[in-house]
TrEMBL record, chain A:
Pfam families: Pyr_redox_2. This is NAD(P)/FAD-dependent oxidoreductase. InterPro entries: FAD/NAD-bd_sf (IPR036188), FAD/NAD-binding_dom (IPR023753), Metab_Enz_Cyan_OpOx_G3PDH (IPR051691). The keyword Oxidoreductase applies. Residues 17-310 form the FAD/NAD(P)-binding domain. Keywords: Oxidoreductase. Gene3D superfamilies: FAD/NAD(P)-binding domain (3.50.50.60).
Length: 422, 497
């Protein structure tokens, strides 16, 4: 299927049925299912090995809902990659998609040359990253030693390098505890975790024993206001949000965790409709974007959920990609889903009656605040269509799931649906 | 000289004909110009690299000089420097984009000031400014906030890569035989005591030992008044004027395709919105007088000020993520012009107070400096042959980058292997930078040569990988030095950080 068909000299063209951008859990799972149904699937990932974030997340906690077992990140990443390849998908690493050459055509840079991939359908699975210190507008000096969890885990797990001896972790959600584990493994003590929220927001199941085992002091209702140290980090300034009082906490490493933003560059470059809340591409219950034949899955559309949920998006999208290739097109514009505070985004952002259930029959939401009692109210055109108290709390820094059955009373011809807390 | 001698150990030379203090864009341009003649030249820089001071942290505009103060040396040298650097950029591949600028009036008072600015531009020898109405302003910059009353276009105002500029000057100076002496801080000066022999030399006491020089050029930027003081003068005082800037995500680039300037005030050029040569959008700088000449930290109030300005100028810009923020210190003095003085007796020239236009004017300042030195008696015999000017790697967005070039990748797969994804920096470019005549000393130096790590993820994905490559490169250099170096010392401090 390769050849040079006069695109530009030296540019090779590939024409798979489906191009999957991103070989993380969501992309690999989509690729496996699509390849298993006999389609020619080409997965492109810019890293030198497939697997996405779990590759360098060297702790357990992966695979629960998709593989029904719990394993560590690197093993999980390897397994998903192997399965995709076994199913017949071509997984190409060191292949960076740099832009679009057409509606479903991609420009790719690889060591073997520039490639143009003309696919019949495209699945975007480019994931999400943590906002760096710069994007959070934390002023002060700019020494090395300030990083995200992603870089920390790359340094420690993939490059086996040292970090400092005293760290401050900004954030106290799931990923923050993951950072604390990595720091401990690297021999670096976490002297403080800061969170603007009144509680450490990760699962109690993790943070209570986490706190006990890791002995990390958590300063709730605080924020880091300045980084101090010209050549190396010497301290951070921490503000107590209640009193405004500031103190200096000596440290040599600062890890900015959480505060996710999807890697939406390709989605933006394509001019896809973007969800203003999550900043990922707007998708419907079939994970279709606003461009026919272009789908989006994983943390790109819900920054962020756990890897198994991302993987199950891949499972979900496969059927809809096959439908699209068989000529099934979306019916109607769909009904927008909206949220009210404390929620900041909802995924999918669009429901199309007749397109089936969303992944796992769940609507995913993100909250800026903690609510111990989750009384969910769904309204459409001024009419309440559902109200239910869910048995799990609303916590910032982790996805809040609502059964999609709560939307079943919606008028398929009605206006936007709003999800709020009563 | 080998790269190690640039940075570590005893100075590789005892005496030079001319020592240039300060390896910023001005000092590097002067060293380059001097080394075209039969002279031994040293560029003496306190830091580990060229262009690591103010020259790395500015707004990177190649100014036409339309708004300079007519009749000043600055006006003349900016105008001339614009032409010289524009040509040199073409020769050496320094990225330049001819974006043009539009200066926007938001109040009646500012609108009334436009004809005066156009007249001033003409006095400065720049004739192409044009007053335009609000409609034309919005045609040129559709994303601008509502409320603009009119504008003045400056079609030749351009953007340039400040890092490649300084590096190109220094690389060419090196190829012409200049000694690049990094980590060499001038701490004391003994001006010449006589007119002949050793007594005619200045003795520079540096952190790496003593250097004798027949002539000294002081291009020490923020430290130029201190060096001037060491020569016994009290002509000007530098007050660092901090400028903080935001760099917005590349996704913001479609909002701004030219430089958007405010009407200048007595406080300076004001806050602008500009595309950067790397494909981002910049907002800034602030202007705030400080005491500490080394404090380039950013501040809460600076950020607050910029956000407020940005919201007024272009609200859509603030919807995008901030990729980076930084601060630079202008070498402001109590005078309105460059502080250039030649002391023929001391065989000493100071190029100080080059505050907010030095990137543009550097080559003209160098040309001017040569004129002054020649008049004062420095013999300038052109070298019979000179090496070709360097061809600098393109790190700008206006020309194809290696990752886009099928021809390059076909020859060398390393140009097809992306290492820094956000900025699309390839393995080949990082390797080339590490093997370049002036290799980076640290991560920041690598960033200035390749753009690695300056993108939106700030290292989330590739930070560890890029740092690993830098370490390996520096370690290799150390090893090669130990195996082949002339001086047998085995210092280990070459490692970054
Ligand atoms: C520190 C940390 C700890 C975590 N711990 C857990 C845990 O214990 N359990 C759990 O279930 N989840 C955990 N997660 C979350 C989990 O890693 C993610 O949910 C999961 O990786 C998301 O999968 P994805 O496929 O959406 O994206 P990713 O895994 O992010 O994969 C995206 C892929 O796309 C590629 N890509 C992006 N752009 C391009 C392009 N232009 N061209 C080519 N390739 C591209 C990237 O290289 C990457 O490989 C953790 C996350 C982090 C950061
Ligand atoms: C916010 C801001 C925006 C700007 N925007 C622009 C613009 O858009 N266009 C433009 O043309 N110009 C601009 N400028 C101005 C421009 O950056 C400066 O004029 C120029 O960089 C000055 O170069 P320099 O070589 O004189 O100084 P520097 O770059 O500061 O170099 C001086 C060097 O001397 C060294 N040094 C000091 N003391 C000693 C010592 N004792 N021994 C050895 N070495 C010493 C320092 O380490 C330093 O590297 C801007 C400046 C700022 C701050």
């Amino acid at each position: 299927m390769s050849g040079t068909n006069g695109v530009a000299p030296d540019v090779t063209t590939e024409s798979p049925d489906v191009a999957v951008v991103g070989a993380g859990p969501s992309g690999l799972t989509a690729a496996r299912e699509l390849a298993a149904s006999g389609l020619d699937v080409l997965v492109l990932d810019r890293e030198w090995e497939a697997g996405g974030i779990p590759r360098h997340s060297d702790h357990t906690g992966y695979g629960l809902r998709d593989l029904h077992r719990v394993m560590n990140g690197p093993a999980y990443a390897r397994l998903l990659a192997e399965r995709a390849v076994e199913a017949g998908a071509r997984v190409r690493t060191s292949a960076m998609v740099t832009g679009w050459a057409g509606e479903r055509s991609l420009d790719v840079t690889t060591p073997e040359g520039r490639i143009r991939v003309d696919a019949r359908a495209v699945v975007l699975a480019t994931g999400a990253r943590e906002r760096p210190r710069t994007a959070r507008l934390v002023p002060g000096d700019r020494p090395p030693g300030v990083m995200n969890t992603g870089q920390l885990q790359n340094l420690v797990h993939l490059h086996h390098r040292e970090v400092g001896t005293r760290a401050v972790i900004v954030g106290a959600e799931l990923v923050s505890w993951s950072a604390a584990l990595t720091l401990r493994e690297a021999g670096c003590r976490t002297v403080l975790m800061t969170t603007e929220h009144p509680h450490a927001e990760s699962y109690a199941a993790f943070s209570v024993p986490g706190r006990a085992v890791l002995r990390v002091p958590v300063a709730t209702r605080t924020r880091v206001t300045r980084i101090i140290g010209h050549y190396a980090v010497e301290a951070v300034e921490v503000e107590d949000l209640a009193t405004g009082a500031r103190r200096t906490v000596p440290c040599d490493t600062v890890i900015f965790t959480g505060d996710w933003i999807p890697d939406h560059e390709l989605a933006r470059a394509a001019g896809l409709d973007i969800d203003p809340g999550s900043k990922g591409p707007l998708v419907d219950n079939a994970l279709r974007t606003s461009r026919p034949g272009v789908f989006a899955v994983g943390n790109l559309v819900h920054p962020v959920d756990t890897a198994d949920i991302a993987a199950l998006d891949g499972h979900h999208v496969a059927r809809h990609v096959r439908d699209y290739l068989a000529g099934v097109l979306p019916q109607g514009p769909g009904i927008p889903l909206r949220v009210e505070a404390p929620f900041t985004w909802v995924s999918p952002g669009l429901v199309r009656p007749g397109a089936g259930k969303p992944p796992r029959e769940r609507i995913l939401l993100w909250s800026a605040e903690q609510r111990l009692v989750a009384r969910v109210e769904v309204t459409q055109d001024g009419r309440r269509i559902a109200r239910r108290t869910l048995p799990w709390p609303v916590s910032p820094g982790r996805v809040f799931r609502v059964p999609s059955s709560l939307l079943s009373g919606a008028d398929p011809h009605g206006g936007p649906i709003t999800i709020a807390l009563a | 000289m080998n790269t190690r001698q640039m940075r570590y150990g005893p100075l590789p030379v005892e005496r030079v004909d001319v020592a240039v203090i300060g390896g910023g864009v001005v000092g590097a341009a002067v060293a380059r110009a001097l080394s075209a003649y039969e002279l031994s030249v040293a560029l003496v820089e306190a830091r580990a690299d060229v262009g690591d001071g103010t020259s790395k942290a500015n707004t990177a505009i190649l100014h036409t000089g339309f708004d300079a103060k007519p009749g000043t040396l600055e006006s003349r040298l900016v105008r001339r420097g614009y032409e010289l650097l524009g040509d040199y950029a073409t020769t050496t591949g320094i990225p330049v984009e001819r974006t043009g600028a539009v200066l926007v009036a938001w109040t009646e008072e500012e609108l009334a000031a436009l004809p005066g600015l156009a007249a001033k531009a003409a006095e400065n020898g720049y004739e192409r400014c044009e007053i335009v109405d609000a409609e034309e302003v919005y045609r040129q910059v559709p994303a601008l906030a509502p409320g603009a009353l009119g504008g003045l276009t400056v079609p030749d105002e351009s953007i340039i890569c400040p890092w490649t500029t300084t590096l190109a000057f220094a690389t060419e100076a090196l190829s012409r035989g200049t000694y690049l002496l990094f980590n060499t801080r001038v701490e004391g000066v003994e001006p010449p005591s006589g007119t002949a022999g050793d007594a005619a030399d200045t003795v520079l006491r540096t952190s790496r030992g003593t250097l004798r020089a027949g002539w000294v050029v002081n291009a020490a930027g923020l430290g130029s008044d201190v060096i001037d003081g060491l020569f016994g003068h009290t002509r000007f005082t530098v007050t660092p004027r901090r400028g903080e800037l935001f760099v917005f995500d590349k996704l913001a680039r479609p909002l701004v395709n030219r430089i958007v300037l405010p009407v200048p005030s007595s406080r300076g050029k004001g806050v602008l919105v500009s595309p950067t040569i790397y494909g981002n959008v910049m907002l800034g700088p602030t202007a705030e007088d400080r005491d500490d000449r080394t404090d380039t930290s950013t501040s809460e109030h600076g950020f607050g000020f910029l956000l407020e300005k940005g919201r007024k100028l272009m609200p859509a810009l603030l919807e995008e993520e901030v990729t980076a923020s930084y601060a630079g210190l202008r070498a402001a003095t109590e005078h309105g012009d460059y502080q250039v003085f030649l002391d023929a007796g001391q065989r000493y020239l100071v190029l100080g107070g080059i505050r907010s236009t030095g990137l543009t004017s550097a080559m003209a300042v160098a040309e001017h400096a040569l004129g002054l030195l020649g008049e004062a008696g420095l013999r300038l015999d052109a070298k019979a042959t000179l090496p070709d000017p360097p061809r600098m790697p393109n790190i700008g967005e206006a020309f194809p980058r290696p990752y886009q070039r099928a021809d390059l990748i076909a020859e060398d797969p390393a140009y097809g292997t992306a290492v820094c994804f956000c900025e699309r920096v390839t393995e080949g470019e990082i390797r080339d930078a590490l093997a370049s005549p002036i290799p980076p000393a640290d991560i920041d130096g690598l960033r200035r040569r390749t753009r690695a790590l300056m993108g939106r993820c700030q290292g989330f994905f590739c930070g560890a990988e890029v740092e690993g490559r830098l370490r390996a490169g520096v370690a290799r250099e150390n090893r090669e030095y130990r195996e082949h170096g002339e001086h047998g010392e085995t210092e280990q401090t070459g490692e970054a950080q």
